[in-house]
Prior knowledge:
Blueprint: E1 10-21, E2 28-39, E3 43-47, H1 54-62, E4 69-74, E5 77-78, H2 84-93, E6 94-97, H3 111-121, H4 129-142, H5 147-150, H6 160-174, E7 178-182, H7 190-207, E8 210-215, H8 218-224, E9 227-232, E10 235-241, H9 242-247, H10 252-259, H11 266-278
Parallel strand pairs: 3-8, 3-9, 6-7, 7-8
Antiparallel strand pairs: 1-2, 1-4, 4-5, 9-10
The structure holds adenosine-5'-diphosphate and magnesium ion.
Amino acid sequence: MNSEIMNTGLCLSGTGVTKVFGFGDKKTVAVNNVDFKFHMGELISIVGESGSGKTTLVKMLLGLTSVTGGDIYFMGKKRDISSHHKKKEYWRGIQAIFQDPFSSFNIFNKIDTVLLDCINMRGGRRLSRQKKRELMSEACGFVNLKFEEMTNKYPFELSGGQMQRLMIARIFLLKPKILLADEPTSMIDACSRSTILDMLLKLRDETGMMIIFITHDIGLAYYISDSVYIMEHGKFVEHGTADEVILNPKADYTKRLINDVPKINEPWEFRKQLRKAVN
Ligand SMILES: Nc1ncnc2c1ncn2[C@@H]1O[C@H](COP(=O)(O)OP(=O)(O)O)[C@@H](O)[C@H]1O
Ligand SMILES: [Mg+2]
């Protein structure tokens, strides 16, 4: 998929990354000694059933949860998020959208404020009001929202699909190198779902952003990704290109996930129909 924008640069990698919650009898090894190498511009899916450790890994990658073992490297260097300042700097490069967009916003902030904060975070504090409006309007346009209709609204006045689009508008303004998308379509209706997926693909195509897409849906993973990592009980049991893993699975767990999908080609058909409907 769009191999021209991919280059060989490693932007996020990890060795032996582990997260253990609790102690003794109550111990849960949520992420168990995983290794990974993610490259610039790639779209990676991490696929696993509920409870397999996906969100815990996302939170470690973001620096929201401490790492119990192993090392994470960002842009070729060992990640250092030991101070608040360093963490903020790190978050310029790596951002996330979550399953429940409503949980990601401060409900007392109007949408303009949400977008303005992004412009400020990217060093645009001193821009003119006019320029800031232009940027906000462009970001809303990118996700097919009308900025004029968004001003003075609160996030809770939007639908789930609109909220998730607003999350993508934030990412469009923040322009991180890496976007972690943790099941971003699992709480919204099917129609909004395909819109969100198309927007993520567009974001990747236009900005070269590396996207890590987290899902329990292997069909969806096949539809959007270059590479796939399969996660079972906190471990990566298999990884490779989407074609390698899904058309020629090695691990029993992957085979089972594939067998659970009624028709693996359905998303492609769906996409073709969607294209027809749009054109
Ligand atoms: N804060 C926490 N404290 C204790 N256990 C947790 C915590 N967060 C997640 N877990 C456990 O870690 C495992 C992986 O959870 P999670 O990363 O949310 O999986 P997934 O996102 O794949 O559904 C589960 O067994 C879950 O109960
Ligand atoms: Mg999860």
